[in-house]
Amino acid sequence: MHLNNADFEGANLSGAFLRRCDLTGANLNKIVSGLDFPIPDDVVSLLVMQDCDLDKAYLRDVDLKDTVIERCSLISTDIGGANLSGTIIVGSNLDSCIITSETRLPQNESDLIRKWEELNRLAQEDAEPRERRSSITGILIRMEKRNHLLTVGT
Questions:
Q1: Which fold has domain 17-33+45-152?
Q2: What pTM was computed for the model?
Q3: Where is the signal peptide (predicted)?
């Protein structure tokens, strides 16, 4: 499915299953992937994205809580201010993704940096096929409130 440059701004994608979609340059600003009521224990995720191309997509302020992003390409994607709490990212390429200090993450920034550095190290040592590894080098964390930039990875 080709959704190049599609405008999903403000859309409710609760329960959506996007598979093999080309979302290059798509505007997913302020979409909603969650539900307004408590999530049952047997629900693993509310939005599943598999094998999607989200290169240069605009995901600023998107609610991706409890989303599964599997084997997706998010090169140079702007996820500043997105809610990534509980999000599972498996085998995805996040090269040069931009997140800001407003991005809601399950850990604090230093824990996140350590986790990504550890994942990078394990990916290099891993004997698994390349497509099963997450590439997270070059992620930029903009800590705007502290007026300095941090580059994570190599």
A1: Pectate Lyase C-like (2.160.20)
A2: 0.52
A3: none
